[in-house]
Amino acid sequence: MAKFADRVVETTQTTGTGTLDLDGAQTGFRPFSDELTTGRAVYYVIEDDPASPTEYEYGIGTWTSGSPNTLSRDTVEGSSNGGSKISLTGGTTYTVSATVTKSGLDLAIDRDVSITNVSNTTTETTVYSFSVPANTLETNRALRLTMAADYLNNSAGSDTFTIRVKYGATTIFQSAQSLTQDANRRGLTLDVMLSAANGTGQQVARGVFVIGPVNTFAGNTQGNVGSIYEAIHASIAEDSTGALTLSVTFQHATAAATIDAREHITMLELL
Fold this sequence. Notes:
elongated
């Protein structure tokens, strides 16, 4: 699990909203280099005054060894600037601290709990999207995406429902299934792992898609055996040194108001 690194705090006099040039460890603390290798994702906190901060920012960045060492600000999760990057001002020394594990960051980096409903259309529709920061996968790290959804076909016939997961320009998982009419909803679950394969330009993905029997949603707590679809994509060749979008789409073969699929909860973890 992620934990606070042991007294890792540096200072910076960088200005603006860009990548930080790190000036070295604050007196009594340790530098990022004691815990991290170059290109490692890290959970950071920036403050103008740790004792009584008026400016602060926290999120996920990438530490890079160099002259000087730098920290990019890839994903901001909160700040004194309404959740956006703070603009560092000249003449102010800011402290930068980190949350890491010995092997790097290991945590949920995104979550979506808003319901997205796809109904009465045959257009492929994005129900989840996240811009994966550059170098997140490095050469040996992985992302795990899990989703809870449901499906209803209360039309007069069958519908082919297709779910796709994409990373960059590559469809890393796809499942297209014909589902018969029923007045009750089916639960849907998706579990996809995307891992670097000993390089920044090669990845492997494994996906599992489960379609529950009818009446396995909306308060039904009894587990039932459904249909399980699994696939492995072992020849993904996206350049993960740049930011790439990870997305999930739904698509119906039939457009009807009585056919819909709803995404409820999506979690993305960095492993």
